[in-house]
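Final report, Chapter 2: Outcomes

The project's central promise was a pipeline that accepts a single protein chain and returns its three-dimensional structure in a standardized token representation, suitable for archiving and comparison. That pipeline is now operational. To close this chapter, we reproduce one record exactly as it appears in the project archive, with the input sequence first and the structure output second.
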Amino acid sequence: RRAQAEQNAVKPNIADKLKEIKDQVEQQKRQNVKLHSERNKANAARKVMERNLREAAAEARSRAAQVQPEDTKGDAGHRGKEENVKIRQMRQNIDILREALRQDERRFKIEHKEDSQEVEFARGHVEELRASVAKRELELRALEAQASANDRAS
């Protein structure tokens, strides 16, 4: 029995290397989970931004549709001046809304591009981690096989 126990015993240097590789694999798995979580958060934020952009565009269209000259009563000269002032104010409001919409669309495009880049980076990093985990698992199997072979030889 003692001889069998000695054969099954793993050499300390191999056991240390085995533990180190297992720890690294676990760490990479945790990082993989974290990256997936970050990617999901980025996607959720992008969806919220898209919804906000659609709402802002709809509001801008609604306001633009509401901007129509009103019929005023009174004498023609006074009414003409009031209409000119109102039309000028409405045009300013339209210009302001168009500029706000343009800026929102620009911000959305930039954020969308950044989100896409973050997702691609996360995907690449996940693939690197997977490859690294696979490599480590192969090393682990090789070490286990070597330990088993050494035990049999002893």
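Archive annotation: Residues 34 and 123 are 12 Å apart (CA to CA).
This record, like all others produced under the grant, will remain available to the consortium after the project formally closes.
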